Amino acid sequence: MHAWPASEVPALPGKGRDLRIHDSSTGGRVTLEPGPVARIYVCGITPYDATHMGHAATYNAFDLVQRIWLDTRRQVHYVQNVTDVDDPLLERAQRDGEDWVALAERETKLFREDMTALRMLPPKHYIGAVEAIPGIVPLVERLRDAGAAYDLEGDVYFSVAADPHFGEVSRLDAAAMRLLSAERGGDPDRPGKKNPLDPMLWMAARPDQPSWDGGTLGRGRPGWHIECVAIALDHLGMGFDVQGGGSDLAFPHHEMGASHAQVLTGEHPFAQAYVHAGMVGLDGEKMSKSRGNLVFVSTLRRDGVDPAAIRLALLAHHYRSDWEWTDQVLQDAVDRLGRWRAAVSRPDGPSADALVEEIRAALSDDLDSPAALAAVDRWAALQQSGGGTEEGAPGVVSRAVDALMGVAL
Q1: What CATH number does residue 237 fall under?
Q2: pTM above 0.85, yes or no
């Protein structure tokens, strides 16, 4: 599966700072110090609906991580999946009388278009669950052969008891885990499971549902968590720098994935840091496909909204915060974009050197994009008041905003 084209990232004078970021598994901030190649895995979409602002906010956060690493003169090895077969996708296709493959392909194509418009840097490897099945099956077989998985009426479940580190990612108690498991795709009440939290690794073929050859597992399809583990281990290996996604993925998805990988390899941790973006709401509820309270990136683009304004609307909120999308949020971003573009349209202006360092400092401090925006606002206001005559300074500001925040002025 192919990703989307990469926008050019301008080179800036000097060198960026190492990123200090909140790690869900420790509950505090850690300084990331990758090697020459920084490794990041961000969980992708289940393509049964268009890209909404909650998706965009998540991918914006991890695009900032990439840009900070690039500014430190590192290479970035970024991997993202597409869960192109799963219950929600199949249910939507059945509801609409549409072929599930066609639905997945259409919505994945639209997602690529949205990411391109928003100048999100693409993954090096963009892998669908279906194409990953040949690599998933041997992992499930290994877990079963090692006694870390068991059969239940043809399905195969992972035993969370097999991982002594289970629970360290989300840091939740068993009661909270059970509630979230029921809400987020698990089946804690299924009779016969060794532990209510045990997640499915392989679902045996169901009537009228797609299935694939699973070798000794029989025909079926993979569970959600093992999908990401297989892709991450194949392309990044253990101990990669950042596992990313929305805050609703901390449990069960990232918790279970970490346990799968740690039992498979005998190594710990799966990722050096688990980083989670907050939720975006609309009308008092979290944006979600199940509720239908969505604002789509593609709809805004069709309505003539500049993608750079959409990106500024995302950047105006700290990535870990939960926030509400409103018409005023968008209007504020449109107004800010206008001010910034006017400020960089002149050949000279206030010195940009201090501003570049201020943006770097803000973003390296747990991706503090609101502080970075405020710094550019101050520079733009000074420019408007005629506060500087350094030739070429507006061009430096324009390149810095593009390189570090993905906003083209």
Answers
A1: 3.40.50.620
A2: yes
